Amino acid sequence: MSILVTGGAGYIGTHTCVSLLNAGYSVIIADNLANSKIESINKIKEITNKEVSFYQVDVTNSVDVEKIFFSHNIEGVIHFAGLKAVGESVEKPLQYYYNNLVSTIVIAEACIKFGVEKLIFSSSATVYGDNVVPFTEEMELKPTTNPYGTSKAMCEKILIDVVNANPNFSVSLLRYFNPVGAHESGLIGEAPNGIPNNLMPYLTQVAKGKLEKLRVFGNDYSTIDGTGVRDYIHVMDLAEGHLAAFKHIKKGVQIYNLGTGNGVSVLQLIKAFEEANNMIIPYSIVERRAGDIAECYADVSKVEKELGWTAKRDVLEMCRDAWKFELNNI
Ligand code: NAD
Ligand code: UFG
Hints:
The structure is a single chain. The protein has 330 residues and is an alpha/beta fold. It has a domain at 2-182 and 232-259 and 298-311: NAD(P)-binding Rossmann-like Domain (Rossmann fold, 3-Layer(aba) Sandwich). It has helices at 11-22, 39-48, 62-71, 86-91, 93-114, 147-165, 199-208, 235-247, 266-277, 301-307, 315-328; strands at residues 2-6, 26-30, 53-55, 74-79, 118-124, 170-176, 178-180, 214-217, 229-230, 232-234, 252-258, 264-265, 283-286, 295-296. The strands form four sheets. Strands 3-2-1-4-5-6-11 form a seven-stranded parallel sheet, sandwiched between helices. Helix 3 (62-71) runs parallel beside helix 5 (93-114) and helix 5 packs parallel to helix 6 (147-165). The radius of gyration is 19 Å and the shape is globular. The protein starts with a strand and ends with a helix. The mean pLDDT is 97. Bound molecules: nicotinamide-adenine-dinucleotide and uridine-5'-diphosphate-4-deoxy-4-fluoro-alpha-D-galactose. Nicotinamide-adenine-dinucleotide binds at residues 6-7, 9-13, 31-36, 58-60, 80-84, 99, 103, 122, 124, 176, 179.
């Protein structure tokens, strides 16, 4: 039996494939390489010393997707494939809604058609909007201000409706907080195209001298030091969270936060990066970034209790591994 990993060549997908292969699962990857490179497939093989089947397909194409389901004995699907740049989603809403919604519909449809009953979906903490922290899975979702976040909330709803109509189906909706860091080998990690939007890849590029200095977006939030607070989670912890979710998946819909439960401010992350890697990061405080919320961190009691999973790696390890990958990534 194999697990089909859509978007398996991307940042979180590659790390999850490593965890799955190391745990003894067979892995099939479907990725159109829209935001990743073919080399990442070889890196997965290099790290694990195991084979993977790779299909360069767009998972919005039901004919191509069904060919994969037809050719393999698939036990379940982890659906990472999607577009994820918040700013770009505002400029290209149709592209985001089309890709994220249609891919989810096509995958769910193929699961039902081929009797594959386990599906894990990549959701995001962004669906909580500006609820009061810490965010619990039971909170009412707040409409987000960008099409990316809305597409995630819509996919969640689609999958809930699919389960209601197909009671044997098992869906796990995983809401990720802020994934950072890289595999300890330094072979795979986050390599965004162009100038990074997210804090950690921006930080590592400043550390390397590719960018001049970090801009801290606002220091007048009502947080510990005025800067934005997030729940950074090591990508390998996140990967292991998928393994736990897959092992414990059961009929119906389960929703889990994948975070650490700890809020870390921008200034605290800069300090941790400096300490972990023994360097100074130049930064300046600038205006708030439009659309940002002050604080975002998880209540992780449900996932700990029900899946027995907890994030193990601390912020220093996230910073060390992110830097190691940046040094390898020319
Ligand atoms: P990523 O861009 O590195 O990986 C996504 C992969 O999906 C890429 O390899 C891309 O080529 C592929 N892809 C996109 N559309 C596709 C399509 N139609 N057909 C086939 N392949 C397609 O992103 P990531 O950070 O690894 O994120 C994985 C998932 O987790 C996404 O759904 C994202 O929205 C979600 N997520 C990410 C974060 C984050 O901060 N990284 C936070 C919350 C949720
Ligand atoms: N920040 C800076 N300078 C930068 C980049 C970011 O100060 O150059 C700050 C932001 O203002 C925020 C924090 O660092 O306070 C984290 O920002 P990121 O852009 O790294 O991450 P976000 O929390 O904005 O969003 C990320 C993903 C979303 C996902 C969300 C889930 O980009 O897709 O986490 O919590 F939905």
